[in-house]
Amino acid sequence: QCGSCWSFSTTGAIEGARFISTDVLTSLSEQQFLACTPFGNCNSEDPYIAMRWAANNSLCSEESYPYDPPSGKPYPPPPPLVCHADNCTIVVPQGAVQGYRFVSSHSEEALRAAVARQPISVGILSSALAQYKSGIISGYCASTINHAVLVVGYGTDTSSGQARPYWKVKNSYGPGFGEDGYFRVLRNDSACTNYKTGGMAILSSPVYPVLW
């Protein structure tokens, strides 16, 4: 009911980048992004805008400022969320996030090189996730996006006797979704060649945070 996928994609990207540079993994507060940003309040947003905001603000831990979205139907919209970050535990000080950078769009190789360095926020068309349980999603081609997720890795599945390259993607639906909260998308999906955006439009707008 809450359009908060962008906040999960953003916090995951920052958490991953911070872990790579410091060897410390701490969950960040999605609620802070929803309640304390001028563009939040369950409104769908682009992760790069959230990363730009993070460059000018300190970031709270999830433990000290837990996720608590408004309940109920999306229409009429719920009342505005109130920011309660004053007493949270600061994990990422202001200035630690220096901004964001886009990965070259429409490029499997560019995304693979970027994911080899750190998790990457991407937009996808989410229709294929409605019935997803496990396995590699293929043949779902799109040029539009409506859901933000986090690409955390890539690999090759040979369980069927054929080598099938895939992206491993973290969703924001919780550990009960798919493969322990993750799903896989076929890389270099030949069915989507004409779209240039990859399966589920995963190559449309990859972006990652820059940390000092």
TrEMBL record:
Every Peptidase C1A papain C-terminal domain range: 1-210
Coiled-coil annotated spans: none
SMART domains: Pept_C1
Gene Ontology BP annotations: proteolysis
Pfam families: Peptidase_C1
GO molecular function, one term: cysteine-type peptidase activity
UniProt record similarity statement: Belongs to the peptidase C1 family.
Protein name: Peptidase C1A papain C-terminal domain-containing protein
